[in-house]
Amino acid sequence: MAESTSLDKNDLIFDGLLKTMPVIVFVLDQSGTFLFSKGAGLKPLGLKDDQVVGLHYLDIYAEHPEIIKQIKTALAEGFLNAETELNGLHYRLFYRPLRDGQVVGIALDQTEFENLKKQSDYFITELLTAYEVSNEGMWSLHLKQGIVEHNRRWREIFGYSEDEPSNLMEHFANRVHPDDIQRVLSKVESAMESGETFNHEYRLNTPYGLRYVQDRGKVVSRDKDGNPERMTGSLSDITQDVLNQKKLEQLAFQDELTGLPNKVSSENFWKQQPKLENALPVGFAILDIDNFKLVNDVLGHKVGDVLIQNVANLIYSQLTDKSQFFRLGGDEFLIISQNITQEKCLSNLKDLLASVKKVAFHKDVNVKNTFSCGVAFYPDDGHHYDDLFRRAENALYQAKNNGKDQLVRFDMAMELAVEQRYNMLVKLQKALVRKQLFFHYQPQISLIDGRCVGAEILLRWLDDDGKLIPPNVFIPIAEQSQQIIPMTYWIIEEAFLIKQKWHNQGHFNIELAINLPAQFLSEPNLVSYLEQKAQKFNLENSEITLEITESQLMQNHTVDHFGVLRELRLKGFGLAVDDFGTGYSNLANLANCSFSKLKIDKKFIDGLSAPFHNSLQVVEGSAIVKAMLGMAKSLNLEVIAEGVETQEQAEWLKHNGCGQIQGYYFSKPLPEEDFLSFLALHG
Ligand code: C2E
Ligand code: CA
Ligand code: CA
Fold first, then answer.
1. Is residue 546 situated within a structural domain?
2. Is residue 472 part of a domain?
3. How far apart (Å, rounded) are the C-alpha atoms in residues 509 and 252?
């Protein structure tokens, strides 16, 4: 019973094997007839179990002489190991003798094994190639032997040749930066213990110089006692990333153009300084190249850049403590002077400004640059960087406003002035909407017949509190903030409207003068805008005169202002140089853009009866005005004298050939109604 069970069991196992394995088991009798044929290996041949039983091998394999020969040998000898191909499949065969001359054959289908082997060979070659050509350095440490296997990239990173190195410790000692080696080894050791992946960065000294790498690895096999045998990992060269990062960090603190530390650096520097209670003051000086914008706009940014570099170099060379010189951006520099009295600091800075302004900084810029400088002091003007910075800037602003080329020390009144300017700007922004702006009109009188031939529009602002704010207070603020642009559009629109109204009332021959800030000349399509306005209100272009102050004309060059002016003149608009004599203009330029009128500034009219002091000599005021009149005549320009307050002035001007006057002598600027009454008497 027990035996039969075990037989049954063997049968079951045998059956199971036959059904699952790629084998064929067959039995041939002595004559060569199949007695048995079973196994999953039959399926690929298109045969079922025992399908060939009763058939003779010579019939079955008539077309396979190889197989016939093989079976013949097996039947004759009983034992045979052979191989055979059938229907594209590959078999290994084992023949063994049974009783009565029978032979059992086991055919193992090798095809699948072979496919698997081919595949794994392929993978291995692929992996090896990948290993060798990879852009990652690959390594494998044989810990017991102390040797390291590596791929091409690994050797490249470390700067090794084909066959070196193999000794691990030597390799570490030769290549890893001495300051990093301890850290590297302890990382590796703790990874050996824990079995975790390590990942660290370190520096290498290679024959090609310093390199930065990132190295990762872990233990991949241990001996039976748990000691690590092999460790594998990969290594990337991160030198470029590290250098880029360093460059970025540097850029964050350094100005690229001059190589000087930048504003952020100056703040850090300030924060790091110990602030001692009774220490000497610290000077905080902001320095700015005068008229730099002009250089940039006229000669281009490249010239501007060279100028900044040269200025930076020169100032740097003159400073005793060079570590505290910063470029803030644009044409602004900061000099922090420590442990110094205020007097000494100011005199040092004055000397510096005087010595650098003697230098021509660029071969294409034959003007010598001047500098403006604003200074604030710790602790008098503040304890914090931001306060000192703001106050030095306020002082700089003041230096610019006072006519540039000078040093100004901060004082509290400046801060109040800045605050007031800011508050006024906020109110001014609402003034247009709240209809608080309106015009006064100042008559312009012909000296030939004493008649009113024109009027200058002068803007007035009645603020929220009913206070009249004079234009020379709010116009400069509007000009600095760009608020002047929408304001000027509004002025033009209103002026044309008034002029049309006067037309309708029968006043035709009144030239209307509008003040234009030079920056308005940069407005796109200005000429056609004005033309269209004139058409819309049925006015001749020549009925409008545009006044531009001489000093602004000389300053502003972003757009070709002279070109715009020429075009306006061609279209027939009147063009007047306002405040003539205060802006040092180039006469050729004035003639060039066809100005039609000079407005001699009040200061020269005031000076008619007194000697006039210019910086070089004392000149009779009347001589200057005479010269202006002569020059205007030769350039064929009309002349109007401004700020005429007395009969003597008016008579002198008439006698010397001045065409028109404007001033309190005839009339102050008037509200519209009063102006129209004036016109009724003098029109
Ligand atoms: P401005 O264009 O030179 O205007 C002449 C200024 O001199 C006016 O001052 C006028 O009232 C004043 N004035 C005229 N005759 C005499 C006189 O005989 N004696 C004295 N002491 N002063 C006289 P106002 O109206 O205060 O304007 C000052 C400045 O504000 C103007 O100087 C002009 O630069 C600016 N401004 C006025 N209105 C406008 C405007 O609508 N647009 C622009 N952009 N600026 C304007
Ligand atoms: Ca004017
Ligand atoms: Ca003027």
1. yes
2. no
3. 64
